Amino acid sequence: MQLRASVHTSQSATSVSARAPKRPRKRRANFPMEKLMEQFLEQSVQAEDNFYRMEEQRLQAEDRRREAEHARELHMLQMLGQMFSSISSSSSSSTTSGPAATPSKTALSARAPVPSSASPLFISSVFERYYSSGSTSHSSMDDDILSLVKSIVPPLTSKKHKGQDGRIGIIGGCQDYTGAPYFAAISALKVGADLSHVFCTKDAATVIKSYSPELIVHPVLDSPNAVEEIEKWLPRLHGLVVGPGLGREDFLLKTAKEVIEKSKTRDIPIVIDADGLWLVTQHPSVIHGYQKGILTPNFMEFTRLYEALHHEPMDSSDHQRSVLQLSVAMGNLTVVLKGEQDLITDGSKVISCSVEGSGRRCGGQGDLLSGSMGVLAHWAHAASAAGVVRSVNPSVVAAFGACSLTRQCNSQAFQRHGRSTTTSDMIQEIGSAFKKLFES
């Protein structure tokens, strides 16, 4: 009986299992697109952080190398000083005591040991490099160019009418970026422009207007006839700044490209920054060879632009050579490589702006630079047409003035606010910084 029951039980279990439907195997759900994009952005941020970390390590190594080289040169100078002083003392003693007091070569070498590798050419180069690298030469060069900047600043008189000292247009401002065009436009006004226009997208206009009632805001950048809407304002503008808050949507970049072309036909000075440089990277011909154009890339933007034109990695060990090469490749366009020292060139020579700033690098500082540069570019080219500036490229003068002003604003704001310094704090310093640099 037990055997029969067990057989029956096993048969019933088998029949139940046969009737039960198979449980479908779980399949791993596909990641949603948002998750993939999030992972991609995280990887991009991590890659950029790694790049900056490696670049910082490289710069630190370069600083250590230069310090070691400088220490060797100082040591060489000390030995040369000892040698010359011993020669001088021996000459004076020989004059008073006669030939018997002349020191031997052995004694001289014992007092002033000079390496056998120190040839006269090497000694001469050491002196030349030591004195040419001093702060005095940089200061005198800065003073010379600052005097040129002072010469282009128009005087304030009651005989002028509104708009005569500058009407500047900013091409930029979209839903994601409203601060950048505001910073550029308000900086242009603070430097001395009479009117400042912002040509932005419709959804950015109200936000930008709320920042300041002093700006003229045109919500036309994303309209179907954007180029026509902006073009009708070009005859009234003295300078154009393209890029702050522009974004990288194809339609907006296409509009900016056509506006640049229209502005070139009217001989308007053009400063290109931020996303405008992304446009130039894709279409270098849009500004190639335009002598009233200025590019203001940071290191990352400069690297992209350099590699797009030269089709090879940039030599990051020699920034002066690289910025010179890029300017020449762009038809001797004025290029400002922003960094520890701003490098400015029009393809003929490189000028370094070393006005002291601070260690605080806040977002929006480049917009202050581009906005002020738009005004100074108008003043510089107007002064050149009047014969005031002759020996130097007016765009270079404007670029140096804007770089100096931005650094001075940064320094003054940092003295007041320290680590909490923001671009809004820097903008409040424009008036006093301008007066200190260009009106004192």
From TrEMBL:
GO molecular function, one term: ATP-dependent NAD(P)H-hydrate dehydratase activity
UniProt catalytic activity: (6S)-NADPHX + ATP = ADP + phosphate + NADPH + H(+); (6S)-NADHX + ATP = ADP + phosphate + NADH + H(+)
Source domain of life: Eukaryota
Keywords, comma-separated and alphabetical: ATP-binding, Lyase, NAD, NADP, Nucleotide-binding, Phosphoprotein
GO biological process, one term: nicotinamide nucleotide metabolic process
Enzyme class: lyase
HAMAP family given in the database record: NADHX_dehydratase
Protein name, as recorded: ATP-dependent (S)-NAD(P)H-hydrate dehydratase
Species of origin: Scophthalmus maximus (Turbot)
Taxonomic lineage: Eukaryota, Metazoa, Chordata, Craniata, Vertebrata
